[in-house]
Amino acid sequence: MKQFVFLVLFSMMMSCTTQSGEGPLIIGHRGAMGYETENTLASVEKAIELGVDMVEVDVFQISSGEIVVFHDERVDRLSNSAGLIKEYNIFDLKKLILDGGHGIPMLQDVLKQMNGRAALNIELKDTNIADNIHQIITGYSAKPEWSESQFIVSSFDWEELRKYREYSPEGRIAVLTEGDPLQAIEVARELKAEAINPHYSQVNAGNVAKLHEAGFKVYTYTVNDPADFQRLKAAGVDGVFSDYPDRMK
Ligand code: G3P
Ligand code: CA
Hints:
- The protein is an alpha/beta fold and about 250 residues long.
- The protein contains nine helices and nine strands.
- It has one domain (about 25-245): Alpha-Beta Barrel (TIM Barrel), CATH 3.20.20.190.
- Helix 5 (about 130-140) packs across helix 6 (about 160-165).
- The chain binds SN-glycerol-3-phosphate (G3P) and calcium ion.
């Protein structure tokens, strides 16, 4: 029992503190997309190699049912083919070649590769996938390498987050927003979210203080300039997403 309590407390600490124990969490954006093709196993591995606290990936469900890690609705920008990612089945998707010769991984491939070495932010880019995502997280949380506290689910689609909350009453949620982050407080309260994740251009010391007062952490995206990082750190943010996690100093 003591061992169990220790393990739970330890994994909670690991999910909420930085590698160094101070300053904002460093979150590898789409892996470490400044160095490797975004949302690939290579990009995820690079982020871990750079010592991130958390890796962020984007997900869709494809026509044969698998959850795959990809950012765009269409495969055109990043692959040697064209079309909507959702219309691919796994057989045809496996044939796609991304820039740098990479393939599109399934979420399970990323989870197997990470093996609990960092926390994981799963950004829902698709609708009606909350149930599947909850099942995958539940399955991996039961493995010795992972704990539920290492997973956080985010989305700009607040309706999909509502569905996720129904499936997962206790799971960590972050509300993504492009505009004024204070406008997201109401939905964050409703969703019992941990964090509100605004674009960094919308963040200042004043609204960070208000978001903290309301009980939310602030994880801001996508910060690549060390000068911006210093400003945001001084403003009190709790985490930054970066394509170049090693530059966040
Ligand atoms: O979660 C932060 C960031 O990833 C949101 O924007 O377009 O890179 O998915 P995007
Ligand atoms: Ca994303």
